[in-house]
Specification:
Elements (H helix, E strand, L loop, with lengths): L5 E6 L9 H6 L8 E2 L2 E2 H9 L5 E8 L4 H9 L8 E5 L4 H9 L6 E5 L7 H10 L5 E7 H7 L8 E2 L4 E10 L2 H6 L13 H8 L1 H8 L5 H10 L5 E6 L11 H14 L14
Parallel strand pairs: 1-4, 1-6, 4-5, 7-10
Antiparallel strand pairs: 2-3, 6-9, 7-9, 8-9
Helix pairs in contact: 8-9
Length: 275
């Protein structure tokens, strides 16, 4: 694949005023420091990123009170030669991303510090898609998520051809892509707040989605027009890319999947109810 060097933005901040239960359980200050398969969550993400030749820099976005502790983990990856810096976070996700761009045009790939099932292949698919779009959103289908674990994801965006889950992997190729990131200014938890969806994508687009009249690709194209940007989805074959460490349920599933990859004998979690 032709080289397109990118800067990666890793969102590691906690929600303002919220004590994360996984951090509390592990006795650490931040969720990204909670151990899984023997290492902090963020270590698994950094392991994937620092072994990708196209990554030219990594910027970790985090509030000041957690930076010293997290930097100790990041320091173990700096000898690999990729510059790794910490950027002060903002309570708003878009402002955090914009702060991490440091006024540059891109290209950027944005992910999260709890995205422990991130793969080189998924990253490279997003990077490649930025050659033909201003913004890229990584998703996978409901069936592919359920093929990994039937409780892997609880919310899906239903479009004409399939239900999709977000994979917390985004490409912002240029200033137009950064402008389109305004979609997430109120937070990305659209499944839990339909008002956010309407304000971000427009009522007509949401109604078309609600009644199965629009595909994922067409929906993003229409949303992109609101920002004069070309937005495209990358639909991953790997359903595990939609599962990150949000809570006890997804922690158990990620631990099992990650353990399989690392050759650890961790039994499949039997989860009776959603959490």
């Amino acid at each position: 694949m032709e080289e397109l060097p990118v800067t990666v933005i890793v969102l590691a901040a906690q929600r303002t005023g919220v004590v994360n239960p996984l951090a509390q359980r592990a006795g650490v200050s931040h969720k990204c420091l909670a151990p899984i398969c023997g290492k902090p969550l963020i270590s698994h993400v950094m392991e994937a990123l620092t072994t990708l030749p196209a990554v030219q820099e990594i910027r970790v976005v985090l509030e000041p009170d957690g930076q010293a502790e997290v930097d100790e983990v990041l320091e173990t990856f700096r000898p690999r030669g990729i510059p790794i810096t910490i950027v002060d976070s903002n309570p708003n996700i878009v402002e955090s991303v914009l702060a991490a761009t440091q006024g540059e045009d891109g290209p950027f790939i944005v992910t999260t510090a709890d995205n422990v099932l991130l793969t080189h292949d998924g990253f490279e698919q997003v990077r490649s898609a930025m050659k033909r779009a201003d913004g890229v959103i990584g998703v996978t289908t409901k069936e592919r998520v359920h093929a990994v674990h039937e409780r892997g994801q609880r919310g899906f965006y239903e479009f004409k051809e399939a239900g999709y889950a977000n994979c917390n992997l985004y490409g912002l190729a240029n200033r137009k892509g950064l402008k389109a990131a305004e979609i997430f200014r109120e937070g990305g938890q659209f499944q839990a707040n339909r008002g956010r969806m309407v304000r971000a994508f427009g009522l007509f687009n949401i109604l078309m989605m609600r009644f199965g009249l629009i595909t994922m690709a067409n929906g993003l194209a229409r949303a992109g027009k609101r920002f004069d940007a070309k937005l495209v989805p990358v639909v991953f074959e790997d359903g595990a890319l939609a599962i990150d460490v949000d809570n006890e349920r997804t922690y158990a599933i990620c631990e099992w999947v990650l353990g399989q990859r690392l050759g650890m004998d961790i039994p499949k979690p039997e989860i009776e109810a959603w959490s």
